[in-house]
Design brief:
Length: 197
């Protein structure tokens, strides 16, 4: 009998993603992942080592997908605004990524898995902002890394804490008209934040 190793691995990662999103790394069990994936627990241990290693794999895949989907090559305020808008869209359309990052923040103290690789992605985005600042096309009030982090916060806050956004603005990311207004606010705020002094 020929085994579909890649298919099995894919099923495990998909099942693990769903479990980690719902229960976090500490609340998820290898048994539940195996049941959801339709495999035995030994496959998970064989391919991934255990729950912690599998959580790192899930985050790695989610982060790589996000980095590819929402690049930042922006040296002018309009492009910075569009980056923030795309990040808002991605956060709204992929809430599992946001939840995984929140679980990671709650369960990891200190360095996280793949931190160096992830930092390199962030540094690439920050370098783009630094180029815009050096050319005088973006604000110099904030350091490039600080501007980058503020942009991420502006873009993702609606999905990170939707209950707070709902209480403050009376809007929901689940409503298309509300989401369009939220996105417009994110883009406008990012442009203003990035505008030269």
């Amino acid at each position: 009998m020929v085994r579909d190793v890649e298919g099995t691995r894919r099923k495990i990662v998909e099942a693990a993603t769903e479990e980690f999103v719902a229960h976090g790394p500490d609340g998820t069990t290898v048994e539940r992942i195996a049941r959801r994936a339709g495999v035995n627990k030994e496959r998970i241990y064989h391919y991934y080592g255990g729950r912690a290693e599998l959580f790192a794999v899930v985050l790695r895949e989610q982060f790589a997908t996000t980095a590819g989907a929402v690049p930042l090559d922006a040296t002018e305020p309009d492009a910075v605004g569009e980056f923030a808008g795309r990040m808002y869209d991605y956060s709204r359309d992929h809430p599992q990524f946001v939840r995984l990052l929140m679980w990671e923040a709650l369960t990891h103290t200190g360095e996280v898995p793949d931190e160096d690789q992830r930092r390199a992605t962030y540094e690439g985005r920050t370098a783009s902002l630094a180029q815009g600042q050096a050319a005088g096309r973006l604000t110099s009030t904030l350091a490039p890394a600080e501007l980058h982090l503020v942009l991420l916060a502006v873009a993702a806050y609606w999905t990170v804490l939707p209950q707070v956004a709902r209480m403050v603005t009376g809007t929901s990311t689940d409503d298309a008209a509300d989401a369009a207004r939220q996105r417009a606010a994110v883009v406008a705020a990012a442009r203003r934040l990035a505008a030269p002094d």
